[in-house]
Design brief:
Elements: H1 2-28, H2 32-56, H3 66-96
Helix pairs in contact: 1-2, 2-3
């Protein structure tokens, strides 16, 4: 268990260092277009990192074996698909709601 915790801490530090390097690159960029793309990239990286750690945290995957990597990828994309389906349902319910003003309020 301690060995796994050490690997997770190293991975967290690696992610933090990568984000700091991207942050410095952001500061050095001069064009707005490049800064916008970098912000989008940072948001996507943070979303994938946070969501993958939350989804895969309760599972004991051994990322040295190809079958466990495949299982982890399948689990993550299955979760991502269900998030998309839930988002679609929420948007559908919001669209079908009656958004007119209440007649007693006027």
């Amino acid at each position: 268990m301690i060995l796994q915790r050490g690997k997770k801490e190293k991975m967290n530090w690696l992610i933090i260092v990568a984000l700091v390097i991207l942050g410095f690159a952001f500061i050095k960029m001069r064009h707005i277009k490049h800064k916008f793309y970098l912000i989008i990239l940072l948001v996507v990286i943070l979303f994938v990192y946070v969501s993958a750690t939350r989804v895969l945290s309760n599972k004991n995957f051994d990322f040295r074996s190809a079958s466990d990597i495949g299982s982890a990828v399948k689990l993550y994309f299955s979760w991502l698909g269900s998030v998309g389906g839930n988002f679609k349902n929420i948007v559908g319910h919001v669209i079908s709601m009656d958004w007119n003003l209440n007649k007693t309020a006027t």
